[in-house]
Amino acid sequence: MVLLWLTMLLTWASCLPQTIQDPNSPIKNLRVDPESERLTWDLNGNVSKIECIKDSIQHIEAMRNMYCHIDGLSLCTVSNYTVRASEPPFSTWILFPEPASPDGKPEAAAENLSCLIHDVDFITCNWTVGQGAPSDVQYHLYSTDVDTREQRECLHYRADARGTHISCRFDNISKKFKYFHNYVIVVNGSSKDARIPCTDITISDLSRIEKLSMPQMTTKCNKTHSLMTWKMRSHFNTRFIYELQIQQGTEPAILETVKHGTSFLLPNPGRYTVKIRAQEVYDNLLSEWSAPQHFVCDPEEPPQARTWRVSLLIALGALLALLLALVLCRRYSVAQKIFPPIPRMKDPISDHFPNDKLMAWEAGTAEPEDCTVTEVRLVKET
């Protein structure tokens, strides 16, 4: 932290113009304000059509002819800033920050600094040790939110065989980095033998440095269709299209593109293998292909399982038949108790005959199997 503030103080010393000041110059007191990222000056007389040029490449239009806003102003890399007026024709320039002092070692600064968002929640920055760095050099990384000026030191370092830091990781970035903010990443160096210059980069769009993670897919399927759904996670990219590579059985693989939504319906799937990847809409960032996933949506039943299933169905049928019989028996017995049969009235004529039947016959006639009938005449007693 002390080294970073030391760098800031040194930048103020570099605000002096590098040209000899003429009291009558149309543009005077050229200077850089690191905090506001402005290249400012004083006007002498009526001056118009002013522009700023960074390193003879980047042209920036002046605001109200009073200043130029420098996006991604570096506190470590020396750049030439030229201010040029058309009316009257005039130009002046300044170097910012000032070149390293004689006791410094520019070649000892960290090199090849770059940062990458990965695995959704992490930012890792990597660099290499400066070619002229002393053996005791050590590096530390800081991030600064350009919009809020909030500064964070990175805590999770990775070192080389000598113990020199060459990488650092920020965790839980959704709470530390904001989508539309600009960030300056600075690597400061320290050594007992020499002053080590810093190295920095500006990240103006976090979405562009993200390595997209693969979508996470789940599937529900049966004989007629397979519904594939997936989830895509990113804190800085929101719009994607998806590519699915599907191979059914031994057929050649086909490529399906899903531009809207996060699902795909595959008819008559059978056995198939699928891979998926995501592509960001605006910058065409691509994730890697997911690992192949294999699904069997209409599995063939082995003979042992079929025999077991048939036996189980037979046993279940027998059990159901037995239960039905028991239910019917219990129901008949209960009905008999609740509704007993009603006795019929006794017939005074026929109830004393066997089998409750009457036989009609005429006197004087005989059937082959009938007994002989003798007429009896009743004589009145005297």
Keywords summarizing the entry:
382 residues; Immunoglobulin-like; 4-stranded antiparallel β-sheet; 2 helices; 13% helix
Query: What is the general shape?
Result: elongated
Share of helix, binned: 10-25%
Alpha carbon gyration radius: 50 Å
Distance between the termini: 161 Å
Query: Averaged pLDDT, please?
Result: 84
Give the CATH superfamily of the domain at 106-203: Immunoglobulins
H-E string: HEEEEEEEEEEEEEEEEEEEEEEH
Query: CATH first level of the domain at 106-203: which class?
Result: Mainly Beta
Structure annotation, total helices: 2
CATH arch. level architecture of the domain at 106-203? Sandwich
What share of the residues does DSSP label as strand, in percent?
35-45%
Total strand segments: 22
- The strands making up the biggest β-sheet line up spatially as 4-3-6-7
Q: Which spans of ≥5 residues are poorly predicted at pLDDT below 50?
A: 1-19
Q: SS-based structural class?
A: mainly beta
Largest sheet: 4 strands, antiparallel
